[in-house]
Amino acid sequence: MPRGQKSKSRFLLLYGSQRGQAKSIAEEICDQAEGLGVVADAYCLSQKEKYNLEKEIAPVVFVVSTTGDGEPPDTALAFVRGIKKKTLPSDHFEHMRYALLALGDTNYSNFCNCGKTIDSRLQELGAKRFYPTGHADDGVGLEIVVEPWIEGLWEAVRKALSEMSASGQERLDQAETDPNGYVGKQDEPNTDKFGGDLNIQLLSLHDPVPGLSDVGPQREGAGAEAGAAYTLLTRSQPPVSESSLSIPTLPPPFIDVQLLNTSPQEVISPFSLPHVPVSRAVRLTGEGAVKTALLLELDEHQMDYQPGDSFDIHCPNSCAEVDELLRRLGLSQQKSCSVQLQLRADTKKKAAQIPSYIPERCSLQYLFTWCLEIRSVLKKAFLRSLVEYTSNPAEKRRLQELCSKQGSAEYNSFIRDPGLCLLDLLRAFTSCLPPLSILIEHLPKLQPRSYSAASSSLSHPGKLLFVFNIVEFPACAERPIPRRGVCTGWLADMVSSVLQPSGGVHTQEMNPGLQTSPKVFVSLRPSSAFHLPADPTVPIVMVGPGTGVAPFIGFLQHREKQRQENQEAAFGETWLFFGCRYKDREFLFREELENFVARGTLTHLKVCFSRDAGDGEELGPKYVQHNLHLHAQQVGNVLLKQNGCFYVCGDARNMAKDVNEALIEIVGKELQVDKLEAMKVVAGLREEKRYLQDIWS
Ligand code: FAD
């Protein structure tokens, strides 16, 4: 971003983003700074040629996310490597004053690890914090920490700038701070609705809350019934309805859209990626299973993968939802028009860019099908923009409430927790009719979904297998229409007519010719450390309940081939802890696993069934962690005496945490040490890459 006007004070804003969250928070900070008369020079950490921290005399603000198993995002990798160099002297950054906002997810281990690493390394190199570090948790909602952190940042920046003024910094312009810590130029009327002059606008205390019966005009395809079903969302209630509201600044618009009647550029392959046929689809779970698990086999000859690798499936949004959205926006007739995007000449948004993931002159339908995450949960900034395009006064006020500071709890209950998306909102707020440009500005990129390979290319040359549960979101009071996950729902629909019933992985290829098979776009993810040990004599413990068993099927197939090919060689012990609810319906890969045991590839198979207890069978362990405890001594031996490896795959929200706790207890018990010491040992196992996780939520 170019340096701003000389009259304004400036600070440097550096972000490291994997999926765009840190970037969009940095943009938010930039926009607010603009309104306060401060210039934020914002760059991605990877744009090394644009900033020079060795010589930086202005305050520096970092916003960094964490990815995978506590790794830096790809864009921050080189930066982190650079500051970790042991040769740097301890006063290397003595001149630096910085603040840091770390993003993470407590469902994963190593919460905010990238932010924490940068923070502690900057301290070691002499930099001083001018504002406490924020650690925002995506597991409960980033905004819980991000919003107050940004609110408090301005006073801290102002102070840092004034303290640093001796080294050539100019004072922060006349920004005023209200008693609650809100900052705004309250002496200037906010006449330019796109100017973003105020961080927070105060609405009058007695703005009337008009009756909800006074609904706005019906739009194409928007049913009044659907609106009525969302009353929790749409109804203003005390105390928020009676409160004056502090609402975010209107994000400055930056895109102009034209829909051209010329035929759109034909996009043959949306991603220039291999488009591979699905050669087999098997339902792994039986009737009555709580979740439906499917196995898909891809006819993939180009990807060179190892068991333990994962890959991305690039899925489209649901056709029905795209059609409904287009209808609701009054754009159905133009769905084949080509979309031409331009930056608004008058935009006040800093570093405004046309999204790189939207191909030039694609059709409107393509845009909504392949480019935009139309199911993304509505952010407050988006709600704020939608206020401007809502004609009914009651609905307008309600949207203001939902994005306001006072309506935070309601936002969490009615939008964030039930995962409400744009279409839900348009169904409920029938007078809201946003222009296309706003949607392109606010809807994030449609992300591919990752899956772990459930095969070894040694035993399945030219094939790639994976397993997934169809994600179901049942209807709830806040969202009366049930739905399936974007990718798993799409995959399930696509293979429904060729799906084979459960019968193990040895079922027939459904269509040897593959001419008419459904196809998916795939790409391999960067390889992680989640692989079998290079030395086959190293013993391993695998913990993979439910679909978490997937990579271990690949491990075992690989091991089995290695054993067949090297009959004289020695192989380490293999343990697998599997669990599910019901043995008869959800025991995935039962036959294969039992065969691995029979052939000696899998030395110990330990299973448990959480909901089978009480049906006449002896009450056994319920969850994998209970089974680990029952075999504490052997697991301890593998890890602590035989230098073995411990792998965990599957649900990050509960299972991975419980297994981690169990491991700490086992280590404590086996080594006869207290919890703190056991935690250190477990952290050491992680460092040595002997405790590896492939977990997701
Ligand atoms: P989506 O439409 O993306 O919805 C699912 C997510 O949206 C939920 O996780 C939740 O966070 C959120 N959400 C949306 N609406 C709501 C709501 N109303 N209430 C609550 N939450 C909501 N999955 C597998 O099944 N098998 C695998 O082998 C596998 N391997 C993976 C490997 C890696 C490295 C990673 C990162 C993930 C892996 N996953 C795997 C998860 C997988 O990528 C997808 O997240 C999953 O299949 C769901 O995708 P979806 O598009 O169907 O669901």
UniProtKB/TrEMBL annotation:
One GO term (biological process): methionine biosynthetic process
E.C. no: 1.16.1.8
GO CC field: cytosol
Keyword S-adenosyl-L-methionine recorded: yes
First-tier enzyme category under EC: oxidoreductase
InterPro entries: CysJ-like_FAD-binding, FAD-bd_FR_type, Flavdoxin-like, Flavodoxin/NO_synth, Flavoprot_Pyr_Nucl_cyt_Rdtase, Flavoprotein-like_sf, FNR_nucleotide-bd, NADPH_Cyt_P450_Rdtase_alpha
UniProt keyword terms in alphabetical order: Amino-acid biosynthesis, FAD, Flavoprotein, FMN, Methionine biosynthesis, NADP, Oxidoreductase, S-adenosyl-L-methionine
Cofactor: FAD; FMN
Signal peptide extent: none
Molecular function per GO: [methionine synthase] reductase (NADPH) activity; flavin adenine dinucleotide binding; FMN binding
Domain FAD-binding FR-type: 252-533
Record keyword NADP present: yes
SUPFAM superfamilies, per the entry: Ferredoxin reductase-like, C-terminal NADP-linked domain, Flavoproteins, Riboflavin synthase domain-like
Alphabetized PANTHER family for the sequence: METHIONINE SYNTHASE REDUCTASE (PTHR19384:SF84), NITRIC OXIDE SYNTHASE-RELATED (PTHR19384)
UniProt name for this protein: Methionine synthase reductase
Organism ancestry: Eukaryota, Metazoa, Chordata, Craniata, Vertebrata
